[in-house]
Amino acid sequence: MRIGFIGLGNMGGGMAACLARAGHDVRAFDLAADALAAAVQAGCTAAASAAEATWQSAAVITMLPAGRHVRAVYDDAILGHAGPDAVLIDCSTIDVATARAVGSDAAARGVLAVDAPVSGGVAAPAAGTLAFMVGGPDAAFAQAQPVLAAMGRAVLHAGGAGMGQAAKIANNLLLGASMVATAEAFTLAMKLGLDAQTFFDIASQASGQCWSMTSYCPVPGPVPAAPSNRDYAGGFASALMLKDLKLAIAAAHDAGASVPMGAAAAALYQAFANMGGGDRDFSAVIKLLDGSWQQ
Ligand code: NAD
Questions:
Q1: Is any atom of ligand 1 closer than 6 Å to the C-beta of 11?
Q2: Longest C-alpha distance within the chain, in Å?
Q3: Model confidence over 71-80: pLDDT tens digits?
Q4: 89 Cα to the center of ligand 1, angstroms
Q5: Which of 6, 18, 29, 31 to mutate to test the pocket of ligand 1 (most atoms within 8 A of CB)?
Q6: Residue 141 burial (10 A CB sphere; 0-12, 13-18, 19+)
Q7: Considering only CA atoms, which residue is closest to atom 25 of ligand 1?
Q8: Is there a smaller number of Cβ atoms within 10 Å at the N or the C end of the chain?
Q9: Residue 267 CB less than 6 A away from ligand 1
Q10: Cβ–Cβ < 8 Å for 159, 135
Q11: For residue 240, which atom of ligand 1 is closest to its CA?
């Protein structure tokens, strides 16, 4: 299948390479020449513009930083150049309002479109562990599903346009707040004299059990694969968690939802970013709480 791929950064580069490995004819475009060169090295064909990547492609995927980039690329290149049988797939994490607007603009032109943000970090495309949360009409989901399935392990239909983004930011609000609470609990337990492994063994069998502890423990030791064992390098950057929390808070404001725990988590991640921790894994917020953070 001919697939246009626009935005070949940390995530998009790996995802486009996945599609090329699966035998698709990937027409790739990025404003950054080095990102484009890496995609060509991975088996994609360079397109001269986003419009050229879109032209005659059966699916057009975008993986861009934020809503304003998606809006601009859709307006300048995609909506005017996509064929009537194409499916448009935006995998970026963006605000719900822009995702809905882009979906309805595509629908007005008779083109199928979905928002399909991903869960999983930069290693996930190569490992085949990406999960997609998809918003859009049934017909668009059906057409996007096999394309997304070639890049990950799970493709879940969340509802109509924008619902993929809604699922993603609500999940990450829960994750951010639960990581802060997990980090607080370990800080308290250890300051009271409990050994970290002992507290882990007890709490992971008790009612405090949660993913942030049992799969991603912010204290080194109990979960060997967690970034805490590698000085919080790699993983899911605190700056990206802050971005998702801000999206969740803005969406909550629009929807009239009360999210005080998410707001508290966002304030802590903002403080951590201001102190130079933005590029560390989001579990490193424990170093802000226990006072051991040094840049
Ligand atoms: P990135 O900054 O590494 O990549 C974005 C790419 O888009 C860059 O290469 C940039 O040159 C390109 N770009 C920007 N404007 C463009 C335009 N007009 N035309 C063509 N290319 C353009 O970002 P990333 O880490 O790959 O993240 C992409 C999206 O995925 C973001 O929305 C992010 O929130 C989300 N996400 C990231 C991760 C992660 O771990 N990095 C995980 C899940 C979701």
A1: yes
A2: 65
A3: 999 999 999 9
A4: 14
A5: 31
A6: buried
A7: 10
A8: C
A9: no
A10: yes
A11: 34
pLDDT in tens, 231-268: 999 889 999 999 999 999 999 999 999 999 999 999 99
Query: 42-64: per-residue pLDDT in tens?
Result: 999 999 999 999 999 999 999 99
- Which residue's alpha carbon is nearest to atom 5 within ligand 1? 9
131 lines ligand 1 (CB under 6 A): no
141: which 2 tokens? 């989901």
